[in-house]
């Protein structure tokens, strides 16, 4: 084996962004140039799904965990977050259809046990966590900077700086200067 170097950080962030957007799009709908199943529909459009998933990823990552539950009794719950988004955004599907879609159709989640799920790849969780920090702004960037020597947050910090749509480096520098 020859070890290939890891791609530059900005390329990795753009790659993860593209991967997630493709998984959330309609790629799964076609097979051999035929529509597989028109009944399977995403509960969210891509932008809303990114917001939903980034909020979930941030909550999970903040617990220094990779797993979340699908019940209302957990501090990080797909159920609770889905209900919040359903009410705010007039979503027609129910939480079980949405969870099934993210798990079985999009492949964003992997089922760990009957009630526990995780993101199908830790990179997805880390990228979406960085995306949520970028979306939320200054107070979340300040919290990220407070975790300066925390290994669990290292990749999130690197991805945050490299997210193509945001100027993460400037936000971190500003936070450090403010102290």
Q: Can you characterise this structure?
A:
The chain is mostly helical and 179 residues long. The protein contains eight helices and five strands, in the order H-E-E-H-E-H-H-E-E-H-H-H-H. A three-stranded antiparallel β-sheet has the order 3-5-4. A two-stranded antiparallel ribbon has the order 1-2. Strand 1 (30-31) and strand 2 form a beta hairpin. Helix 1 (9-24) packs across helix 7 (154-162). The radius of gyration is 17 Å and the shape is globular.
What's the average pLDDT? Answer: 83
Number of helices: 8
**Which structural category fits the helices and strands?**
mainly alpha
Which percent range fits the helix content? 55-70%
Largest sheet: 3 strands, antiparallel
Number of strands: 5
**Rg, Cα atoms, Å:** 17 Å
Sequence stretches where pLDDT stays below 50 over 5 or more residues: none
Give the overall shape. Answer: globular
Strand order of the largest sheet: 3-5-4
What letter string, H or E per element, gives the SSE order?
HEEHEHHEEHHHH
Strand content: 5-15%
Terminal Cα span: 45 Å
Brief digest:
With 179 residues, the chain is mainly alpha-helical.
């Amino acid at each position: 084996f020859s070890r290939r170097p890891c791609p530059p950080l900005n390329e990795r962030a753009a790659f993860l962004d593209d991967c997630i957007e493709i998984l959330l799009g309609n790629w799964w709908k076609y097979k051999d140039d035929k529509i597989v199943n028109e009944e399977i529909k995403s509960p969210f459009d891509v932008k809303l799904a990114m917001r939903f998933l980034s909020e979930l990823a941030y909550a999970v990552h903040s617990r220094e965990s990779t797993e979340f539950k699908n019940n209302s009794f957990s501090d990080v719950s797909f159920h609770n977050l889905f209900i919040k988004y359903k009410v705010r955004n007039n979503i027609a599907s129910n939480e079980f259809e949405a969870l099934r879609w993210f798990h079985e159709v999009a492949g964003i989640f992997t089922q760990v046990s009957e009630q526990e799920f995780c993101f199908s790849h830790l990179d997805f969780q880390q990228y979406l966590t960085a995306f949520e920090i970028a979306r939320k702004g200054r107070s979340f960037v300040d919290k990220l900077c407070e975790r300066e020597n925390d290994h669990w947050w290292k990749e999130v910090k690197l991805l945050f700086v490299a997210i193509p749509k945001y100027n993460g480096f400037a936000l971190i520098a500003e936070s450090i200067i403010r102290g």
